[in-house]
Design brief:
4 copies of one chain form a homotetramer. Chain A is 76% helix and 0% strand. Chain A has 137 residues and is mainly α. The first copy, chain A, has a single domain, classed as Substrate Binding Domain Of Dnak, Chain:A, Domain 2 (Up-down Bundle), CATH 1.20.1270. In chain A, helix 2 runs antiparallel to helix 5, helix 3 packs antiparallel against helix 4 and helix 4 packs antiparallel against helix 5. The longest helix of chain A is centred in the first third of the chain and has 29 residues. Chain A starts with a helix and ends with a helix.
Amino acid sequence: MNPRMSSVLGRHPAAMASSEAREQLAACIDSCLVCAQICKTCADACLGEDGVKGLVGCVRLDLDCAEACYATASVLSRASGGLDRVTRDLLRVCSDVCAACADMCAGHAEEYAHCLVCAEACRDCQHACKDLLEVLP
Amino acid sequence: MNPRMSSVLGRHPAAMASSEAREQLAACIDSCLVCAQICKTCADACLGEDGVKGLVGCVRLDLDCAEACYATASVLSRASGGLDRVTRDLLRVCSDVCAACADMCAGHAEEYAHCLVCAEACRDCQHACKDLLEVLP
Amino acid sequence: MNPRMSSVLGRHPAAMASSEAREQLAACIDSCLVCAQICKTCADACLGEDGVKGLVGCVRLDLDCAEACYATASVLSRASGGLDRVTRDLLRVCSDVCAACADMCAGHAEEYAHCLVCAEACRDCQHACKDLLEVLP
Amino acid sequence: MNPRMSSVLGRHPAAMASSEAREQLAACIDSCLVCAQICKTCADACLGEDGVKGLVGCVRLDLDCAEACYATASVLSRASGGLDRVTRDLLRVCSDVCAACADMCAGHAEEYAHCLVCAEACRDCQHACKDLLEVLP
């Protein structure tokens, strides 16, 4: 994770007192951004495969997952004061779509190595969102 | 609403058979895009007001609402086959954040006319998301 | 075009004095949003076609065009004070990618009716961006 | 940088032969994502400052910079085949807006530590975009 992510959160005028909470927030944001980007690249890699016709569902879910992850990261950039209800609901949706995308990509992981990387990034993000929901009040 | 929105949905290979359902989908997408954009412009208008210090919560909620609306519109562009679970959950989150943003902006509507326009766009989008959840299986 | 788009621009504290200029700004924003959304739906429709393998380039360009259009609309939501250099450069890039996407989709328009709708939306947006560059100082 | 970013690029069916080129692409994508997110957080931090009225220009430029960076990262997720003209133009716009945002934030860096972090992230991204333009054909 880029050290600037938690650094900027620590310099926010409403910064969380606990550096552990800030690190958790930064980690979740980082997981969302990485997952969004890996999903987009996995979608593009699927498009380049000979077997693209069998990967259409994967491309679509990759793109949906990327949207949810990016929206979540954006909303979390304004979460220094804590998680409000909408942010919590969005984290749950994000965790769910990451779980679904991880499952789908894992199903192609033996044949397509980019799907293996994507499944791992989605699983990470699924857990990072759940963890943040438990840690932050 | 731009007629091309429902036109392109009607030319999708998995287009919904019912033109009414397609119109409802197009209407919800349109409401999300309009709301996202109005929220961003309302945020910028708030930033330009002398009383910006009292409008900071409005700017933040406007930006959150815009993110949720835009992600929802994007995911709905892939919903010709129907609403899966994640799309339904995202529609609920979007409806909720629109309701919250409508309430906040309505509270400033007498003083700031851009907040009045924004409250109306948010209320529309709140209902369009709810309606789509009820109409589409 | 949704009337709220120009309405909110007219209620911005730094609103352009000329209602014609505001209408032009609103029209360009609207064209960008419509084009972004039509491109995403066209990409999804291409994914659903039997001949998806021959449409991969179209899916990719659709997605690129959608990103440029959406970023441009977002930046234009903060352009009530006029177009700064970055906004002007972004409008040029947006106009260019719309022209490229219009050309590509027009090439498939006889076979795929969604590409015809997309080509028209891209052409509109190409011109709306160019027009705004000429009208606004 | 998250190692999965270059890993997924290396598993793309059209992956660049040179691992150095792939690393450079991954590094630029990473810089764009970090810059987008830091800019959004810096904007939110500015909103929380007592002196927000003097920081409005910074909030706006932060938000514009975030949009350009994110669009660039997205388009670069489809750049495994190389940089086409639109991608190159977008990289130039992104580099320019990062330079402008770095300059503005650097002007507040003594007073606001989040602006210092943001200025650094913007400067990094400015150079990463320029570097990619020079390295990739």
